[in-house]
Amino acid sequence: MISLAARALLSLTAMVGFGLRFRARGNDLDRWLCLGATLALFAELHYLFTPMLSGRSISQGDFLRLLSYSVLLVGVWRAIRHAEFGRAVAEERTRVAREIHDGLAQYLFAVSTHASMLESGADPKQTLAQLKEAAAAAQQEARFAVLALSSAGGSAPFDSALRRYVDFLTADGQLEVDLEIADGVRLAPDEQIEVFRIVQEGLANARKHAGARHADVRIEERAGERFVTVVDDGSGFDEQEIAAGQGLRNMRARAASIGGGFRLISAPGRGTALEVVLRA
Fold it and tell me: Which residues pair with 180 in a beta bridge?
């Protein structure tokens, strides 16, 4: 009897404590814990005031205790789901911040720098031309970012967003790109944004640094694996010298973030080929 009374007192304390905490903070888990403690309290009171005549019989207290355990499990499950959602939101915010930092922010910094140069008395003719170029690049990067984020968010098909990006990139005729996305290849939302940015980085390097005139982009599935390849006919580079570059590190990190393997092959005068391999 004493042990039953003590357990009932503990359940009452838990019920009051979780109830007050829910009232103060409005936490969903506290509500479920309070409900579970309430059911446990009634179970203990039933054991206390209605002693069982036989250890083999099942009483209402047993049902109440089982129900309290079920309520606690539901509360914990909801708390875990909420924590996973919060983590996903935090990761999404981090990803968006990285997209802005890696792209648009760099061009806006260039715009600010050239504006400061004008204020300091720099040659207006040359500086205004550079300012205009930086502003145009920032505008284009903003379009690319919208395309990338919309494709990852599901509001625009990935293949359509990537083709539109290629159209923007090749509009001036400096680079020709052949894009082929095999039928049936599916990319998860997080894979879409990282693949988009890897392809963007690869094509940007081919155009700006390698002086390439042609590039092939392939997204296909072979032997249970998905392959993303970007091959250009540019000047290439020594892999040892460029291995520490920030752009290459970013591509490796992006591939790793979606569980993909990354490989880059290049040599002076022989172009560059990069490949990302994802499990199907």
Answer: 218
Would the pTM count as exceeding 0.85?
no
Tokens of 132: 């205009």
Concatenated DSSP letters of the chain: -HHHHHHHHHHHHHHHHHHHHHHHH--HHHHHHHHHHHHHHHHHHHHHHS--S-TTS--HHHHHHHHHHHHHHHHHHHHHHHHHHHHHHHHHHHHHHHHHHHTHHHHHHHHHHHHHHHHTT--HHHHHHHHHHHHHHHHHHHHHHHHHHHHHHTSS-HHHHHHHHHHHHTTTSS-EEEEEE-TT----HHHHHHHHHHHHHHHHHHHHTS--SEEEEEEEEETTEEEEEEEE-S----HHHHTT-HHHHHHHHHHHHTT-EEEEEE-TTS-EEEEEEEE-
Nearest to 250 by CA among 23, 95, 70: 95
Question: pLDDT by residue for the chain (280 residues), tens digit each?
Answer: 777 788 888 888 888 888 888 888 888 888 888 888 898 888 888 777 776 655 566 778 778 888 888 888 888 888 887 777 677 667 666 766 666 666 677 678 778 888 888 888 888 888 888 888 878 777 777 766 666 556 554 445 778 878 877 887 787 788 999 999 998 898 887 788 889 889 988 888 888 778 899 999 999 999 889 999 999 999 887 766 655 566 788 888 889 989 999 999 888 888 999 999 998 7
CA-CA-CA-CA torsion sign (189, 193, 195, 199):
positive
Q: In what order do the strands lie in the sheet with 176-181?
A: 176-181, 214-222, 225-232, 272-279, 261-266
